[in-house]
């Protein structure tokens, strides 16, 4: 080790040159288990606090290779963020197959019951930049990389089963319209502005998707509580070469949950990392998120009989018509070690398919298959991005692709071409014939033309089906979302054009949105099809209709005041644990509250930093003062008020004064989702109520 400088000199601030900072005594030196700090070249660094200079107050020397290398690397730390889906979070896990699907596909993931395949999943919002907030009203990406025995399979889907556009050529337009407006640089992470709705209103094919986007699907409570969809029709191919069409569905084991819009807006301020924190914390706590993979498999006959084109990505196949067959379970069980190395560098590509999985002619999917390879080069900077650990297949890789920037592999062999007549290592790998990826044989005819198939022309019937499949509460939310978003458009003609499209979906929807905007109802926009169909409702499309009665995986916020009953607090803690939920104790100060028995209960949060929007349900336990002291805190009053107005289940133990201070004493009368907590039985009843849906019929409006 190089020697340290010996003579301490006084600096202008009165510090000696050898003073390292306030934490000096905590700052360990290398030795024992503590590794030596080195340069990237491995040279041990003697002093990482001071650069090399000529004279104590003189200029820094170019000779300081450690400084130069450190700053050089820092200057180049950033890579371009994803053009879409920039903000995301991910985790590792495993996919386990329920039963062999060999009759349908030769994909090794589905080869046998119990077969496990490693996965990496990245969830994302679409429009916002890397540093944007998690609860934007937006589609969520749900991208899964299966490291299969025969190469990576990337199922790069969304949490909504349809898309805005039918042809890849419109994707740059769509994305440009939703991103910040280029002449002003805002708004960030929002579709609520003129350019998005200008585009959407001029593209009737996006109407169906905007209904989903205006629904609570676009403000999920957690990545762990949302569905995922492959969106396009893909193909399964079995060992005999027989192919079937397939659509992929992910269903969360915890059930689906969303927040309400007013909550989303506030969560973005209180905890912009709400979704990533939730995923990280649940996995770290051993409460592993799980999704069941399901498939809708069908043949040409079904495709021909279906009233829409199965190649059209703005359409779905209702589950009532073609049930979803569960085929396996995915468990995310490991957080990343390094966010950049894994979540930022993971490269998903729709064209990554192993033998047994193939594409359909969906024009959007076909376009995606070009795009994803391109984007990796501009983001990751080298054609060798497949060697980055998170992207590297877990099966053997052997080919004649050589060299390039950042080549990590010392590929052996003499021949780097084929055919070649060398053998062994020198000859390199050989093609495998039929057992490799063989595209499905398909006869194709037709003139070369730029054309949109007539079978893609109905833009409204399924939008109408989605609308009538929603519960009244969900319909209210959709109307409110359109009114909010269109209300942010400064150009009235854009609002009117969108409402004109909505008239083709449902008159009541259009009228309600127009009323919300104080807009005269415009004429319906011309539809491309003669008849917009009245298809039967599909209950599977409603989130509330299929809500799962459980509090598992969700979070209670318990506000505790001084003098609270220790036994009651304990009973709540136990009940929450038994329900496999989590809880945070909130007190006026983070140091905690002093309970009636004199014990000190440390808090997880101070009330000022823990608004009730961060919790699925809330409870308040005050002391003998009935929570009067808590009620003096504006944040505590807001806590309760917001919880009430977000339809949440509320538990109250000695909290009358607090409730009064919040102005809720009259409002909670007769409200069966506001429960008194005084003994163990009442705590059970409270947790049981938490497992049920919110109190949607609380008379407070949307
Ligand atoms: Fe993507 N999309 N996309 N997309 N997409 C990207 O790839 C693109 C589309 C989706 O967590 C980009 O690596 C085109 C549909 C997800 O890393 C880019 C078209 C669906 C992710 C790209 C689409 C998606 C992306 C940006 C129309 C749902 C994030 C960075 C033809 C089925 C993956 C990147 C992750 C990312 C292009 C349409 C889902 C530019 C051209 C439809 C989940 O390649």
Automatic annotation (TrEMBL):
Pfam families recorded: Catalase (PF00199), Catalase-rel (PF06628), Catalase_C (PF18011)
List the transmembrane segments.
none
| Class of the enzyme per the UniProt entry, highest EC level | oxidoreductase
EC number annotated for this UniProt entry: 1.11.1.6
Record flagged with keyword Oxidoreductase: yes
Q: Which cofactor does it need?
A: heme
The annotated regions of Basic and acidic residues compositional bias extend over: 21-30
Recorded catalytic reaction(s): these are: 2 H2O2 = O2 + 2 H2O
> What InterPro entries would the database entry show?
Catalase, Catalase_AS, Catalase_clade2, Catalase_clade2_helical, Catalase_core, Catalase_haem_BS, Catalase_immune_responsive, Catalase_large_C
Q: Region annotation Disordered: residue ranges? A: 1-54
Residue ranges, compositional bias (Polar residues): 1-16
What keywords are annotated for this sequence in UniProt? Heme, Hydrogen peroxide, Iron, Metal-binding, Oxidoreductase, Peroxidase
What family is it from?
Belongs to the catalase family. HPII subfamily.
What's the stated role of this polypeptide?
Decomposes hydrogen peroxide into water and oxygen; serves to protect cells from the toxic effects of hydrogen peroxide.
Q: What is this protein called?
A: Catalase
Q: Which organism is it from?
A: Nostocoides veronense
Q: What is the lineage of its organism?
A: Bacteria, Bacillati, Actinomycetota, Actinomycetes, Micrococcales
